[in-house]
Design brief:
single chain, Rossmann fold, 19 helices, about 35% helix, 4 domains
Amino acid sequence: MDSFDQMGLAPELLEALTAEGIEVPSGLQADAIPVLVRGNPAVLRAGPGAGAAVAYGAALLSRLEPGGGRPSGVVLTGTPESATGLARSLGRLGMVTGHRCAALSTGWALPGHADILVATPGTLASAVRAAEVKLDGLQALVLDGAAFLLEGEGSQDISLILDAAESDDWQGIVVADPITSEVREWVDAHMRRAVFLPSEAAGEDLAEAPVERGEILLHVVERPDILRDPMTLVEQLLDEEIHHVLLFCRSEDRAADVGDMLTLHGFVAGMPGDPDTPVWLGLDALADRKRATDSGIDPEQVATVSLDLPLDTDTLDRRHGGRPGRAVCVAEGRELPHLRRLAREAGYRLEPLPAADSSRDAAVQAFRDRIRQALETRDLAAYTTLLEPLLDEWSGVEVAAALAALLRDRGVTAVAATSGAPQAQRDEGVPASATPVARPPAWTRLFLSVGSRDGVGPGDLLGAITGEAGLKGDQVGRIDVRDTFARVEVQDTVAGKVIQALNGTSIRGRSVRVDFDRGTSGSRERGGPGSRGRGPGGPRERGPSGPRDRGGSGNPGRRGPTRGPER
């Protein structure tokens, strides 16, 4: 099946998936969703990045009735952080189907009354013992990351959870990669007639592909980042040999966001095959690569990059197979097992991408280390008293930033503390004349479509940004709240993350639209987001297979929150 509308999902759920940028199912999703929608037990050989959460999430939201007052579906996962992430992802889809999804952790109201509850086995077992959660209406149980969950005391916690269910007539869904002997034993004991997907997962794992088809460079990101910092990677790849970088994205909305961020950083991005643009944005691998080939550009001068991890071997091969140029896959650490399996089955060798020059980052880190050392070793009591009057007028973050700026004005550098300068010189913060000065991060101003008339104040905006986008307080600068809108300064490197995280959320009951601030005239002064038109570096208008121009007042092309469920 090459479309979600062939899988028996509710029409409103199909629209929600499309709004999240999930339009074409992966091979695993195409195989699993029809099986799971019918209530069959299944074992999915999949890890993070394979699209399993969309597969079982869409099936549960289609099959389970909402509004029961207690969990009918339970998803068990390994950590509180992953529980929160899954609950938010499923919750965005559940908003259109009427299901309430929640995580059993702090920050969630009445999780015991959610239709779909996400939790770690230990947390849920404790809540069941305390009668805070009742599972007598359990109809489906998902073990996401079963090999980890069944280790140690996890197996006992899961047994207690099953004992709390009044019936054994529940659908079991196990997600694991690899499928260990412990997982198979648990499946044999609790899930009769379970379907293994893909089908070869029921037996031994496939041997390595007999033919080696090439090399793919692996770029591992240390933390989840919605835009995965394409600017640094593009800057690293473009050189005398590579003239164009083709970035493959999972959806049109995603490609448009990447294009906006590249434009903001001065990179010209556009349609594959355009000889005048160094960065190309792609969606349909076969069509986009054909455009590049038909343009007459030497394939050895083009690097192909999977900015979003391929979900299956076919996608991996279509994007990177049979090309003489460099091929790069970007992955989080948790996604590496999935990517390594894809590469092994498709016959590709994974090699680490050489690290970029980090000398500038090292200077900034050294500056922070010097401040950290002062916090740990100096007697700061007198200085705290000295600064108290300022703290009545400004936040602690702003006062600290002002002091850092004064240090920079005096010539205090990041390198001074670790250089070969004399001790007295380092103590006074006076570096050698040739030592570069550490520069503070750049800031970007964002526009938000809520203001004081909506009952929103600076504290509300700061809480929403730090909570939804996971930012630290020092990554948020000045907050200017007007009658019908607000402007917020954030560090340049996290601006795209804030836009993705807040769009479609609510503050004080009002839905929020967030975009880069483009001035104070026109529709922005009237309280609505201005046109999100494309500059010379944004994605150009494309056909059905590529990014579309989403310009125009209010971003009519964006159909909902752009951050989709974990795929």
